Every structure is written in C-alpha cells, then in structure tokens.
Amino acid sequence: MTVPWWAWAAVLAVIVIMLVVDLLAHRGAHVVRVREALVWSMVWVTLGLGFGAVVWGVWGPEAGGEYLAGYLIEKSLAVDNVFVFALLFAYFSVPRELEHRVLFYGVFGALVFRAIFIAAGSVVLDRFHWVLYLFGAFLLYTGVKMARHAAIEVHPDRNPVLRTMRRIVPTTDRYHGSKFWIRQDGRRVATPLLAVLVAVETTDIVFAVDSIPAIFAVTDQPFLVFTSNAFAILGLRAMYFLLAGAMHRFHYLRYGLAAILVLVGVKMLLADIYHVPIWLSLAVIGGCLVVSVGASLLRPPTGATAEGATEGTAQGTTGPEGAPEVATEGPDEGSGGDPAPARPAPPEPADPQPANRPSADPASDADHPGVAGRGR
C-alpha cells in the first residue's frame, strides 16, 4: 500500500479543520446536553465511516476492511476512557460546563501523543519483528486481566506526573471559569482545571498502550493505524456526553472488550503461522460488541451488580481526605437544572472537612488519579 504525501496532508488538514469547527461551536462554556452530544456523535461517526469509504475506494477492500477494523477497535476501547473521565471529573468536582473544554484539549493532546506512539511502533515493528509477539502477549494478558477485574478505578496516589506538578506548579484553590492559568499576586499560577487536563492526558496515554498495539494486530500500515485511531478519538468528547450517565447499563461490555483484546492478541501471536482474513477480524470484533451490548440490554444489572460497580467507583474517587467540594466563580458557576448526563459522584467524606478546605486543589488532595483498568 503506497500512500502519497498529499494523502497525509489532506488527512491532517481535515482533522485540523474539524477541531477548529468544534472549538468555534463550543466557544462559550455550557453544559452539553444529550441531544447535542447525539448530533455531534453522528457527525464524527459519519466522518470516520466516510473516510473509510474513501480508503476502500482508493486502496481497495483489503485496506478499507483494515481501516474499519482498527476504527471499531479504537471506538470500542474508548468506552473505558469515557467511564474513567467521568470518575476524574467527579473526583475533581469539575463544573459540568467546563467538561467539554477539558476534553477538547485532552483529545488534541491524545492525537499528538498517539501519532508519536504509532510512528515509534511502526519503526520498531519494521526493524524488530519479534516485538510483534510481545505486543500479542501483552494484549492477551491485558484482555484476561480485564475480564477478571470488573471495576474501573482511579487512584489519587498513583499518578507521578500529577504528583510532580503539585510540587513544582503553584495552583489556586478554586476554578476560575474556563481558564487553565491566571495571574494572582503578580505571578502566573495554574487553576485546578490544568490538573484535570493533565489527569485526562496521562489517562489516555495509559489506555493507548493497549489500543495502539491492538490496531497493529489488524494492519501494519501506519497510515491506516493513525487514521483509524484519529477519527475514532475525534468522537470521544461526544461519546462521553452521550454515554457517561449510562455506563452502568452496559455491564457486560467490558467482557466483550476483553474478548476483543484476547482475540487480537492471539492473532498477533499466530501472525507467522496463519493469516486471519480481515473479514473474519471484522466479524469477530463486531460479534463481541453486539453480544456484550445485547446481553447488557436483555439482562439489566441486578442489585448486586450495581452495588459492585458503585464500590469500584468509590474506590477510585475517594482520596485520603474525602471528596473535594465544588467552587466556581463568575458566570461559569453551576449548571442549574440542566438535564445533562449523570456521572459517578464521589462518596461522602468519612470525616467532615474544614470549611476553608481548597476546592479540587491539586495541592490539597493527596495526589491524583492513576488508573486501574484494562488489566493495569
């Protein structure tokens, strides 16, 4: 498969244009409603599938199938990101009208980091074929661990990047609208919103460790790996606002995702023995998603299942000093009775906190979320 330079340029131009359109469409801080999220989800999915049709038409059905398989893998694994982002927002008590701003820059950073990972992965696989088996074994291990580990947790004391930031970056004790930085007492200081952004970015980097090798399992073409990943990630913000409040309903979905990781891991391990046709990969990925989602809808979560999910959430959102309070300033304060999607709420603190405790301040909440999930 030969990809001319102008194809790369065209893809990057489309991505930049769509990011600018999204930024202009959400200039003002506001709570994203389900209807708006649904419309944007349809836009991003149409864009992603439309590009797949272009790949199919220009490079043939094999390349088109590989792109679609990679797109489905990344889109399905992004569900984990959605739930963890909801836990992070609850932990930091992020005002709902600021969530989209964090996710916008989070997605932009994710595109940059994933491009770097994909470029590095392509070079490594091209020079050291045996790394393919390491990727396969890692995906197999991750899938098994995911199936055994039902709850997703965020751990405030396991994020070294945020711990370092807490030590070296002065931070205010409350949100200041949609600003990441402000000037206070003559010096430039960060707001807690910057800590949230760093948490989102580091979380996505952790998740990229298995999603990118999974796409390399269905195609070794860097162009297809990057584009399938990019167009799936572009819709992550809309997916969050669409699904964050309903994640508990899809309690079997993680088993479907685990099965996908195991199967693509096996595919990588058997790559030199048997070439799995792309149509079979698509059928397996689609089948795992349909069965797990269908089972979740046909058999709603019982009291025990819901209780287990709640316990997993509480483990991740409880810091050593309890849940932070919410404090905002100016026109960004609260969202009133807007029917926005629900998100996991941090549990009540075990001990009452002083009234002047900093709200969602990275310097006051013992460290910040690391992530346990997808086998980590």
Q: What's the β-strand tally?
A: 4
Using the CA coordinates, give the radius of gyration.
21 Å
Q: Termini distance? A: 35 Å
Structural class: mainly alpha
The arrangement of helices and strands along the chain is HHHHHEHEEHHHHHHE
> Quick one: biggest sheet?
2 strands, antiparallel
Q: Treating each run of at least 4 consecutive H or I residues as one helix, how many helices? A: 12
Tell me, briefly, the overall form: globular
Share of helical residues = 55-70%
Oligomer: single chain
Low-pLDDT windows of residues: 304-338, 345-369
Strand content: under 5%
* Spatial strand sequence of the major β-sheet: 1-4
**Mean pLDDT value:** 79
* Count of separate structural domains: 1
Protein described:
With 376 residues, the protein is mainly α. It has one domain (31-332, 340-346, 358-372). The protein contains twelve helices and four strands. Strand 2 and strand 3 (187-190) form a beta hairpin. The longest helix has 31 residues, at 61-91. The radius of gyration is 21 Å and the shape is globular. Residues 341-352 have a biased composition (Pro residues).
What tags apply to this protein structure?
376 residues; mainly alpha; globular; Integral_membrane_TerC_rswitch; Integral_membrane_TerC
